[in-house]
Backbone:
């Protein structure tokens, strides 16, 4: 395994901004992951584990340590207690797993079509879209413990899944390098139609998994959420802000002052999840808004896009502008969804 120096990280992210990594390595096996971690430890280097780079904002100063890209491939299938287990290497492109599942008529991930990034990132963020989360199908997660340098395995119940959260990005963030993920899918299962746009597309019919995948890809493409080198609106980190979860009383206060219905989703325990896109638009920030070389996608309010020549600093300024407007208008804080690398605490600028 080769250790490279001064590697430009912008080339490894969908947003396309950020400085260089002091050291960089790509691991194609669990053993190479362990070797790279040991190499960095012997030199007292900080370590960042990189997947597909689709949910990442790198600072302009880069990262003064080892960036370890997980490039473990391979997809195997087996039967287990009535389910079809898809065991995927963490470096595999996520959408290739979805495409394979749909082609084999296995339900459970069809609404997650077109999401950029790699398999290893899916349990970290509990990736979800259009009414479906990976936590619904993840059976187990294999990883290397970066403290002990030993392989470990987690059943789904031990992953601490919540909305866009897991043990891997909260209580034990930075401790594990995920190497493989297993998904328990339903052979000949029906597609999930919890999302309103999908329900409208199939009001009476019982669509196939392939039809739902096609519809999801069309919806994502219309919002600039399918990577396309010919579409500058897709040069983003996906949805930049999480949908905020607030107390019922906060929702009621907002609803009393709003013109028209306020979109929300029950979140349990006296809480509701508000639509971040609606909050941003109601705060006076519309699609296509620009602040310097960074902007809001003309197709999707939640996407902050690189319009060319954009620096991480420009993205941060736009992020803070949006947060401030929503805070002043509604008293609600929008939290960013991407991982932030090379900033003060590797999570916030």
Residues:
């Amino acid at each position: 395994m080769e250790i490279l120096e001064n590697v430009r990280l912008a080339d490894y992210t969908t947003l396309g901004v950020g400085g260089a990594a002091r050291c960089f390595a790509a691991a194609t096996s669990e053993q190479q992951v362990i070797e790279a971690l040991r190499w960095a430890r012997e030199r007292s280097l900080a370590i960042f584990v990189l997947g597909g780079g689709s949910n990442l904002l790198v600072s302009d100063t880069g990262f003064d340590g080892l960036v370890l890209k997980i490039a473990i491939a391979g997809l195997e299938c087996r039967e287990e207690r009535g389910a079809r287990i898809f065991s995927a290497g963490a470096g595999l492109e996520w959408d290739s797993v979805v495409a394979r599942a749909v082609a084999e008529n296995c339900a459970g991930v069809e609404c997650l079509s077109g999401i950029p990034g790699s398999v290893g990132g899916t349990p970290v963020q509990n990736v979800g879209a259009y009414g479906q989360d990976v936590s619904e199908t993840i059976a187990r997660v294999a990883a290397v413990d970066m403290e002990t340098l030993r392989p470990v395995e987690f059943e789904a119940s031990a992953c601490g899944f919540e909305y866009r959260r897991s043990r891997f990005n909260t209580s034990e963030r930075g401790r594990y390098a995920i190497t493989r993920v297993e998904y328990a899918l339903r052979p000949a299962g029906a597609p999930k139609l919890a999302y309103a746009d999908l329900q409208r597309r199939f009001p009476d019919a019982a669509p196939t998994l392939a039809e739902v995948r096609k519809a999801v890809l069309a919806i994502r493409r219309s919002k600039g959420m399918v990577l396309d080198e010919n579409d500058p609106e897709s040069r983003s980190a996906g949805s930049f802000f999480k949908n905020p979860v607030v107390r019922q009383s906060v929702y009621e206060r907002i609803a009393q002052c709003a013109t028209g219905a306020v979109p929300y989703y029950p979140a349990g325990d006296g809480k509701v999840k508000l639509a971040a896109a609606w909050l941003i638009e109601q705060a006076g920030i519309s699609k296509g808004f620009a602040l310097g070389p960074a902007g809001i996608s003309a197709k999707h309010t939640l996407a902050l896009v690189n319009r060319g020549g954009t620096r991480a600093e420009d993205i941060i300024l736009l992020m803070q502008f949006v947060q401030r407007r929503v805070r002043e208008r509604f008293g609600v804080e929008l939290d960013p969804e991407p991982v932030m690398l090379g900033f003060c605490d590797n999570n916030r600028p």
Observations:
- The helical segments are 30-42, 94-103, 121-125, 196-201, 209-222, 248-257, 276-282, 312-330.
- The first helix runs from residue 30 to 42.
- The CA atoms of residues 75 and 88 lie 4 Å apart.
